[in-house]
Amino acid sequence: MSIPPSGQPATLRFARIQQLRMIGAILVIAAHAFADGAKYLHAGSRLSILSQTHLGVNLSFVISGFIICYTARGRERDWRLFLRRRLVRVVPLYWLLTILLFAIVMIRPELTKGTNLLSPLLLARSLSFTTFLSGASPLIYVGWTLEYEMLFYLLATLAMSRLERPWHVIPIVMASGVVGIALLDATIGVGMTGIRAITLDFTAGILLAYWFTEGRLPPRPATAVLVGFGVAFAVAVIAGEGLSMAVVPIATALVALAATRDRRGPMRSTVGRLLAAGGGATYSIYLTQVFTVSAMGKLAARFAPGLPLALFALLTVIVTVLAGLLVHRAIEKPLMRLLRPYSSPKPEAVQLSPAQAASSSG
């Protein structure tokens, strides 16, 4: 068996994918900075469109689908190892920062501004990634994306444990879900444009991983995703939300370009290498913004109320990235080292299905 299936070296690091991951995180922070800055500074900027495109979120989900499928088809073929690594990667830091925010709000309840952040039930739902079931936002408000990411992980785990060709079935199931949600939205207005977009991002990433490793797309999954996008885009255009769906192919094309260039050769640009190096810290940066963006807004409103919104956004991005890098180095990396035994392969525990065993022996 070659790892990955295309015979590419297992040590391929996807430097440009990491670079895109960092760029996506910066775009998300900028979007939140423009939105919060407009509220605190009562100012506007032409660049505020960044808060409406959601390109950063789309990039993150395409990359997630790509990396998950790529690694799972290579070195994480056992569903137990796959699930353990996803949980170890996502849960500890998210739980820690969620509990920290809850503690801060308990000490300074005036920071809630009338919201119900002190609710123990909200804390429980946030820690269990289930606030979407109640229509609320988690304590770490960007955690809503992690809740859907966790659903994707569970779907992938179930498919890997039960099906011979899980990565053919998952895109079809998810694209079918997108069509169903879009049709519901068209008839009764469920208002889930964002969910349709990130679901298609994830499935597009999976198809990219196939194309990257096999040099082709699996016909039925590819057709299902194209139909899903077509239906969802049509509904979004009718509802006046076409921009959200239009970003999906843009994000997909950017990830495809990055993966292709990674396969052709190493990155030589100094700036590019710095961005790629920061890509490993994007999870910490993504979560840390919940603290820094709001804090920067309060500080600006008090000490620099006349600060131009664009400059505020730039300063907020810089502060958030630096704070996230610190959290990554001081908290996330030690946590990963501590939990490494739980995310390492255990050969005696790995049980492949007969189909997987046959393909592995080839």
Q: What can you tell me about this protein's structure?
A:
The structure is a single chain. This protein has 362 residues and is mainly alpha-helical. It has one domain (15-345). Helices cover 75% and strands 0% of the residues. The protein contains 15 helices and no strands. It has helices at 15-41, 50-53, 55-74, 79-107, 120-127, 143-162, 166-188, 193-214, 219-238, 242-264, 270-279, 282-303, 309-338, 340-343, 354-361. The chain is globular. The termini are close together.
Strand and helix layout:
Blueprint: H1 15-41, H2 50-53, H3 55-74, H4 79-107, H5 120-127, H6 143-162, H7 166-188, H8 193-214, H9 219-238, H10 242-264, H11 270-279, H12 282-303, H13 309-338, H14 340-343, H15 354-361
Helix pairs in contact: 1-3, 1-10, 1-11, 1-12, 1-13, 3-8, 3-10, 4-6, 4-12, 4-13, 6-7, 7-8, 7-9, 8-9, 8-10, 9-10, 12-13
